[in-house]
Amino acid sequence: MMMLLLTSCLTTRHTNYLQAPINFIPAYKDTFSYQDYRLKEGDRLYIQVYSLDEKTNALFNGTGNSGSPTMLGNGGGSGENSDLFTSLIKTNGCIDFPIVGEIYLKGKTIRQSKVLIENAILPVLKINSVDVRMISRTFSVIGSGKSGKFTFPHEKVNIFQALAMAGDLGQYTDRSKIKILRVTENGNIIKTFDIRSIDIVNSEFYYLEPDDVIFLQPMNQQFFGATTLWSTISTVVTTISFGVGLYYLFTPKSN
Fold it and tell me: Which of 35, 49, 99, 179 has its CA 20 to 30 A from that of 225?
């Protein structure tokens, strides 16, 4: 029992982030640099056209502020009017845009989409510029009492920022088995990694993508609840004392 409780004792090795890859801490040697998100089917874009002509602005952007990025969740969330003031990337990879018609944007970055939309409008009407933003950008966290759905506060969100938004990991969350479910063009994939490793910054899952789901799992030490050496010793002494007491209580006394 002593050995079992000692192995269940939590140490900084179990909970600290950005540890050097040694012993049970894995290394992620494949260096990965951030890449701009590429649009896929089902993504929604908020597109704002800027022109000196008020009629052109009204034609593309409507009137009033009900369709502004703030009302739609500041470019990250989804509002009640998102279907009315955004463009959906359809199964054919195109969006429907007023007057211009269909514009193919699937697989393009936001920057590339901005250029393509401007080039599609210029032959029809004279404009100054186009602002393109993706809305409904969310990720989810499940497990260890941290379940929730969160909105991207800006374009790039890494795993540490995401967990901070969820309230950080609990004391008994297994940091060595963090899982992420991601939807790709080739289907759903699940990646398991150790967030304690400093090499996590080289992982392809260091930066989140829209619709990622983070799964948190409890560690085995939660069963015993021993977080320090002293609490372990206290548990052992209490257990032994209780056992000795039961022994003398039920053992027949000799004359």
Answer: 179
